[in-house]
Amino acid sequence: MTEASSSLDPQTRISLYRQMLRIRKFEEKTHELYKAGRLTGMSPHLCIGEEASAVGVISALNPDDYILSTHRGHGHCLAKGAEMGKMYAELFGKETGYCHGRGGSMHIADVAKGNLGANGIVGAGCPIALGAGLSIQKRHTKQVVVCFFGDAATNQGTFHEAMNMSKAFRLPIVWVCENNLYGLSTPIENVAATPTLSDRARGYNMPGVTVDGMDVEAVRAAAQEAVVRARAGEGPTLLEVKTYRYFGHGASDHRPYRTREEEQDWWKRCPVANFRRKLLSEGVTTEADLAELEQKIDAEVAAGIAFAESSPDPEPEKSTLYVYTED
Amino acid sequence: MAEKTYREAIIEAMAEEMRRDERVVLIGEDVGRFGGAMGASKGLFQEFGSDRVIDTPISEAAIIGSGLGMALTGQRPIAELMFIDFSGVCMDQILNQVAKVRYMLGGQVKVPLVIRTQAGAGKGYAAQHSQSLEAWFTHVPGLKVVMPATPRDAKGLLKSAIRDDNPVMFIEHKLLYNTKGEVPEDPDFLIPLGVAEVKREGSDLTIVSHSRQVLNCLEAAGELSRQGIEAEVIDLRTLRPMDFEAVKASVEKTGRLVSVEEGYPQCGIGAEVVARVAEHCMDSLDMPPIRIASKDSPIPFARILEQETLPSPRRIVERILAARKWTRHSQDSRLAV
Ligand SMILES: Cc1ncc(C[n+]2csc(CCOP(=O)(O)OP(=O)(O)O)c2C)c(N)n1
Ligand SMILES: [Mg+2]
After folding, report:
1. What per-residue confidence (pLDDT) applies to B324?
2. Which helix (H) or strand (E) holds A304?
3. Which of A125, A266, A318, B37 is most buried, most CB within 10 Å of its CB?
4. Interval A83-115: pLDDT, tens
5. Are B111 and A325 in contact (CB under 8 A)?
6. Which domain range does residue A301 map to?
7. Collapsing DSSP states into helix, strand and coil, what is residue A143?
8. Same domain, B106 and B233
9. Which residue of A has its CA nearest to B69?
């Protein structure tokens, strides 16, 4: 047994692991379902490999804090408290899904849990986060907004508008750039003026921090600092989380733009497997306990899928429900 | 009742709603101490302070997104877009975010957001500051689109828009701000969205219009009346949802339809009105419908060109008089539109 490397208590560390494993298993099953032709529509954007970002950041938040998510948002959604059953139901396009089948993979969110929505438009969440921040400022509620976006989104005009205004108005926002090195096939290093994306924060006179996104505790610590600043009224932070998506952008992406060696190197840094090893070697938990935890998650996944499968379809004649409040 | 300008009516509507409901805020460029590029928020900053009247950077996507984010978190914002022409730089926020978020989330949220903007030509502002783009927004499910022609309508409709739980594009006309009219002072005076108004009754012909062109139509109707033709002028006031019942009732009475708008002619509001009449009361028509819009070009700068481009009372009268000679079997297709 080695010396504990963390300042976190064992329960918190196990909970971080559990959340990451929930996301990993949710996504693996989603991939399987899609491959088996059981999900319709665009192939889901899986966040396998990026679990430590969603879990590390969101574990630094209070339940009433807000997040804005992205097209790769299943992990954010789960970490913010959503139920697997209603998420799978949404993936299946069922009436019992979070969005009653109107949203699908790219729009799943449990708004009651503070998730203000995922987005199919790259960079579009950033301006919306401003409004959530302004609203908090006006209500004096000391909440914080986390806005997730990918590396590629930093090349959108909305990113610039939002970064600038958030600092000018000292809004309580943590900008979380999940840098997985690629926007679809395009390496960010080929298309970004600053190799380190957090350097962009300097242009906005706000703190910019890069953190190892394969280490959930490091992500959590970095997020916590930014959250404390935001809550104290000291304004926004740009947090760059260096991570990797192990799968393709979508299911049809066979990754011709990167080598299998590169992928192998990143697999060695798997945020879930490595954290598991760490918890065991530091005596935080035992194989037996982890096996039990894993079983419970498997059961949660199975129950979620069973719920989704046995749920009714939305009623076709109600397809225009939810366009307006009067509908 | 008091005589007020369209501008005053708009300011008064916002002020009353801000007094009534602490959640109502105004956000936009130069809307604060300066009082708005069109002067349509004068005095609000002084009364409500910088928490509720917020001057932004020149970042239109950020303005609309701010409005949306506030609406999703318990506020009832009014976001001012200085010119409707600038919707190009924030269209994603309007089209894909504001209009759709409630639907995509399966009804988990409401979006009580008013996007107040200003459209129209006639001031020599040239091609990027003079457009009437209401048809773009009327196309999109999830938005409501309101375009008042008079001070009274501006006040009653804006108050309803602010109280509405759905996103509303509230489009003012830059030539109307100084027009005057009677405006009720009752703070609960509201005009419901989605209800057209017959601005002039007539039995021979139905003219359907909105915004400033309603005034041109009324002037044209006066001239037609001198020539023995009584035109009914319907002001749609709200383009989405459109009060088609009002149009239908009038067309069934008069048998003749003319639509007048300031936007571009292709796929405009007139196209929608004519299509609905064709679908639902074609048999009532004694004459092919007439669509009058601006000419099919960008809005020019030179006054003489700009005037040529826009519908005017004279053009409306001429088109109607010419078309009345036209019959279904005529060889002369010049006059068929
Ligand atoms: C405005 C816009 N442009 C392009 C796309 C198509 N698209 C979807 S995701 C994506 C890549 C985004 O990369 P990044 O922001 O780094 O997120 P990641 O997929 O890597 O998580 C692209 C090009 C889109 N959805 N929206
Ligand atoms: Mg990326």
Report:
1. 66
2. helix A287-310
3. A125
4. 999 999 999 999 999 999 999 999 999 999 999
5. no
6. 10-309
7. coil
8. no
9. A131
Determine the Cα–Cα distance for residues A77 and A115; give it in Å rounded to an integer.
7
φ, ψ at B34 (rounded to 5°): -70, -30
Question: For residue A290, what are the contacts with CB-CB under 8 A and spacing of at least 6?
Answer: A276, A279, A280
Q: Provide the pLDDT for residue A42.
A: 93
Last residue of a domain, one of B154, B183, B212: B183
Do B326 and B208 share a structural domain?
yes
The answer to whether residues B203 and B179 belong to one domain is: no
Using pLDDT thresholds of 50, 70 and 90, give the confidence band for residue B323. Answer: confident
* CATH code of residue B320: 3.40.50.920
Domain for residue B108, yes or no? yes
> Is B329's pLDDT higher than 50?
no
Are the C-beta atoms of residues A106 and A46 closer than 8 Å to each other? no
Residue B191 within a domain = no
Instruction: Tell me if A322 is assigned to some domain.
Output: no
Q: How sure is the predictor about B325, in pLDDT bands with cuts at 50, 70 and 90?
A: low
Q: How far is CA A244 from the centre of its chain?
A: 13
Distance between B36 CA and the closest CA of chain A, angstroms? 19
Task: Tell me if B192 is assigned to some domain.
Answer: no
- Nearest-CA residue for ligand 1 atom 17 is A150
- Split into its structural domains, chain B has a count of 2
Total domains in the fold of chain A: 1
How far, in Å, from the CA of B221 to the mean position of ligand 2?
A: 61
Q: In this complex, is the C-beta atom of B32 within 8 Å of any C-beta atom belonging to chain A?
A: no
Residue with tokens 């129950």: A303
Give pLDDT, residue A6: 83
Closest Cβ–Cβ partner in A102, A120, A132 for B72:
A132
Q: CA-based angle B257:B237:B95, to the nearest 5?
A: 105
**A269 within domain boundaries:** yes
Shortest distance, CA B142 to any CA of chain A (angstroms): 5
Mean residue pLDDT of chain B comes to 95
> pLDDT tens, A267-293?
999 999 999 999 999 999 999 999 999
Residue B189 placed within a domain: no
Q: Per the structure block, which two tokens stand in for A298?
A: 């498997």
CB-CB contact of B286 with B255 (8 Å): yes
Q: What is the pTM of this model?
A: 0.95
Angle formed by the axes of helices A84-91 and A287-310, nearest 10°: 50
Q: What is the CATH number of the domain that holds B131?
A: 3.40.50.970
C-alpha to C-alpha distance for B200 and A324, rounded to whole angstroms: 32
User: What atom in ligand 1 is closest to the CA of residue A179?
Assistant: 16
Could you tell me the residue range of the domain that residue B229 belongs to?
A: 197-336
> Does residue A4 fall inside a structural domain?
no
Residue ending a domain, among B161, B183, B205, is B183
Which one of A66, A137, A161 has the shortest CB-CB distance to B59?
A161
Q: Percent of chain B scored above 90 by pLDDT?
A: 95
CATH number at residue A184: 3.40.50.970
pLDDT value at B330 more than 60: no
